[in-house]
Amino acid sequence: MSISQNHFISPNQLLFFIIQTQIGIAILQLPIDMFKIVKWEGWIAVIISGFCLQLLALSYLFIVSRWPQPSFFTLTKKGLGNIIGNIVNFLYFVYFIIVGTHILTLYYETISVWLFPETPKLFILLLIVIAAVYLVQEDLQLIARFYGIVSILLILIIVVQLTSYSAAQPLNLLPLGLNSPLDYIKASTLSIQSMLGFEIVLFLYPYLKGEYKKIKLMTVFAIGITTTIYVFTIISSYLFFSPDEILLIPHPVLYMLKAFTSSFVDRLDLLFISVWIVSVSTSFMTYLFLASLYVKNTLPIKRRKPAVPFVALIMLIVAMQYESNLEIEAFGDFMHMISPIFFLLLPLILGIAVFIRAPKKEAMS
Amino acid sequence: MKRWFKNTDDKNQSTDTRKKPAPEPVNADMDRNRRYIKEELHYSEDLHERTLSFANKQAGVYFFIDSVTDSDKLSNTLRSIYNRPLKNPDEVMSSINSIQVVDLSQAVARLIQGETILFFHDHPVCFSINTRLAIQRDVSQPESEQIVRGAHNGFVENIATNVYQVRHLIQQPSLTVRYEYLGKDKHTKVAIVYVDGLCDMHILEETRNRLRNIDTARLISSAVVEEHLEDHPYSPLPQYMSTERPDRCALNLLQGKIVLFIEGEAIALVLPVTFFSFYQSNDDYNSRWYAGTFFRLLRLFSFITAVTLPGIYIAIISFHYEIIPYGMTFVFKDAVEMIPYPPLIEAFFMELTLELIREAGVRLPSPIGQTIGIVGGLVIGDAVVNAGFVSSVMIIVVALTAISSFVVPANEMNMSIRLLRFPVMIMASLAGFVGIVFCLTLYLIHLCKLTSLGKPYFYPFAPFDPKGIWNEILRLPHVKPSQGSKLS
């Protein structure tokens, strides 16, 4: 019942946290993005990047567990010195804002294309932002509980796609081994972008309660599950559409479901998109949470709650600035360009710094 | 949050200047005693004074209030006093089971409760004899919670009888009863019943603390107690279950819950509860387990339909008509085409009509209530479709929704569900499925947030506990050894 208990989450909850953050916007875009680079072998690239993510996430855990701190932001200050640490923290804050904004813009784009072309952007965005603010104001444990419940919806995402297997063409996936290794690498780096969200282990580690081994296991599981769902989605859309068709279609999964009718529900894509909105909101909520965490750690405020609406407002205002599809695309490219700094470069530097400066005694808790 | 809600009602209420009278010892002078008692009771005319005399010699006086005194008991007691013509009043009184009272203010308090107060001349104490009048009705089956198979008794307005009924079902020494007196004047008696060893002591302590903090001069009913005990008084959802069934209480007590009885009310408050306990009925445990499980799942399904069905209808008609299967398109088109109103107005019109019928029927005697149901349901429904105000599909939707919302076994949850559907309808008319998802997300977050005395309300889904789902959502066979659900 005490308040301090609510700040901690269990390794099982971490599992849902990672899955819900990773699965989001990208599930609609990924099949086509992969196809553009490695044709029908996109799923191989996703598996490769899945493995890379496992390694990355495990090394993150290694870094943060090496020198336990009350929060990631204090770790950067201790590891890199106050000035550089503060700059790095601020960069992360900007990064969270950018990712949050990116999620919002893509969400609006999809909704306006598929459902409501005329509805004002602000209204559509507010729906997701209000829900996010309402949840993120609460303690971490409640956020994790919510993620746990909505993970049940992932089953629906898979089941709905199973309908397409009645028209599957296994030959669409052949021949294999057509692409050069360089293409695979290129495609994998792109698909890592779609699976962003695993980096939250860096920030959540201080709030985890449980054996280190179990934390590692659950992280591996979570990324494994996300990879499986992505691979499944990609394969089902490749099986359904022929290579010629797929290039013409922006959201293969939705088009695929649109083609199917059942006697109860005619447009499965609408069902899918309703579930997908929840997944998108959870991704957005995570970044809102991380950004508010930064504000709490930087400003002299005791609680995280008052920071949440302000951070959400910043994201909303920035997202409102992008009007045309071109701008949104440019914004997305910009995000893809800078994100390796945050999931690769900065953690690497931090890792080196931690290894040099961490006191030996506290190592490997 | 609890704190602000408290103490709001007392500031302007406390014009009532009933104060605890200062202690006043019994006087040797009979007239002073007499005056004191009469003044304290404001010369009320149901206060009676009689003299007590042995062998034509006046020995003392006694007081009683005839409206709360059982005259049979009184005359029996008096007879036994006269039959023992002993010299010493102390001896007489101790032989007939009376209580010595030294303080006159206490004597007045006892008088109000129906006891008789005796004074003897030149004696420094008075005596109180229990002559309380007890009027109560039968322990008949509660109207609002009927079951097909099982016990057919219900609680009454008397704590002792209620505790008796629970003790009758749980004959264990560990069943414990604690009394608390609530309110400014401590005039409301509340019994806290729990099974020691099963119940969480922190929760018990917290409950008692919160009860003691109730500081109001109003009449304390179960709703007042409930709101003071709630963690989230502003939530639309009930956080305590009230029941009139002893077997339901016993079942909950054995699961480690606490039960509160309030003097003068025929209900028991069960706490802490989860969302899913509102969806359990005793019939589940008294029927075959397949049927029990099936009906439980059906009730949970009814929650979803009761909250979302009108919203889904509005969303489909206003935005997503593509989702209707091809074969049904014409059915819908025919029904909806000539309706002059937008779906939201249509839905609100029908939903409000339905609520009106329900509200009108609730308090009427049952023969008239049935007439209202027939007039409202059949006549209005048929006429409204024929007149072309509302589509026939809408009637189906509203009827289904209404039936779903009445499926819930607990009345207070039923009220909440009916309110929850209106925001969904409004959002559905603004943003279709996206709006419904938005509303449901908010509801789900709210359910995750809620706690009942600090225990998570949406257990076993949040926090997720597979074992709890077996026990709370499904109804497993009784012969299977239970794993015992635990709250994490």
UniProtKB/TrEMBL annotation, chain A:
<feature type="transmembrane region" description="Helical">
    <location>
        <begin position="143"/>
        <end position="164"/>
    </location>
</feature>
<keyword id="KW-1133">Transmembrane helix</keyword>
<keyword id="KW-0812">Transmembrane</keyword>
<keyword id="KW-0309">Germination</keyword>
<feature type="transmembrane region" description="Helical">
    <location>
        <begin position="270"/>
        <end position="295"/>
    </location>
</feature>
<feature type="transmembrane region" description="Helical">
    <location>
        <begin position="42"/>
        <end position="63"/>
    </location>
</feature>
<keyword id="KW-0813">Transport</keyword>
<dbReference type="InterPro" id="IPR004761">
    <property type="entry name" value="Spore_GerAB"/>
</dbReference>
<dbReference type="GO" id="GO:0009847">
    <property type="term" value="P:spore germination"/>
</dbReference>
<feature type="transmembrane region" description="Helical">
    <location>
        <begin position="184"/>
        <end position="205"/>
    </location>
</feature>
<protein>
    <submittedName>
        <fullName>GerAB/ArcD/ProY family transporter</fullName>
    </submittedName>
</protein>
<feature type="transmembrane region" description="Helical">
    <location>
        <begin position="307"/>
        <end position="322"/>
    </location>
</feature>
<feature type="transmembrane region" description="Helical">
    <location>
        <begin position="334"/>
        <end position="356"/>
    </location>
</feature>
<keyword id="KW-0472">Membrane</keyword>
<dbReference type="Pfam" id="PF03845">
    <property type="entry name" value="Spore_permease"/>
</dbReference>
<dbReference type="GO" id="GO:0016020">
    <property type="term" value="C:membrane"/>
</dbReference>
<feature type="transmembrane region" description="Helical">
    <location>
        <begin position="83"/>
        <end position="108"/>
    </location>
</feature>
<feature type="transmembrane region" description="Helical">
    <location>
        <begin position="217"/>
        <end position="241"/>
    </location>
</feature>
<feature type="transmembrane region" description="Helical">
    <location>
        <begin position="12"/>
        <end position="30"/>
    </location>
</feature>
<comment type="similarity">
    <text>Belongs to the amino acid-polyamine-organocation (APC) superfamily. Spore germination protein (SGP) (TC 2.A.3.9) family.</text>
</comment>
<feature type="transmembrane region" description="Helical">
    <location>
        <begin position="120"/>
        <end position="136"/>
    </location>
</feature>
TrEMBL record, chain B:
<feature type="transmembrane region" description="Helical">
    <location>
        <begin position="258"/>
        <end position="279"/>
    </location>
</feature>
<feature type="transmembrane region" description="Helical">
    <location>
        <begin position="422"/>
        <end position="445"/>
    </location>
</feature>
<comment type="similarity">
    <text>Belongs to the GerABKA family.</text>
</comment>
<dbReference type="GO" id="GO:0005886">
    <property type="term" value="C:plasma membrane"/>
</dbReference>
<feature type="transmembrane region" description="Helical">
    <location>
        <begin position="389"/>
        <end position="410"/>
    </location>
</feature>
<protein>
    <submittedName>
        <fullName>Spore germination protein</fullName>
    </submittedName>
</protein>
<keyword id="KW-0812">Transmembrane</keyword>
<dbReference type="InterPro" id="IPR004995">
    <property type="entry name" value="Spore_Ger"/>
</dbReference>
<dbReference type="GO" id="GO:0009847">
    <property type="term" value="P:spore germination"/>
</dbReference>
<feature type="region of interest" description="Disordered">
    <location>
        <begin position="1"/>
        <end position="30"/>
    </location>
</feature>
<dbReference type="InterPro" id="IPR050768">
    <property type="entry name" value="UPF0353/GerABKA_families"/>
</dbReference>
<feature type="compositionally biased region" description="Basic and acidic residues">
    <location>
        <begin position="1"/>
        <end position="22"/>
    </location>
</feature>
<dbReference type="Pfam" id="PF03323">
    <property type="entry name" value="GerA"/>
</dbReference>
<keyword id="KW-1133">Transmembrane helix</keyword>
<keyword id="KW-0472">Membrane</keyword>
<feature type="transmembrane region" description="Helical">
    <location>
        <begin position="300"/>
        <end position="321"/>
    </location>
</feature>
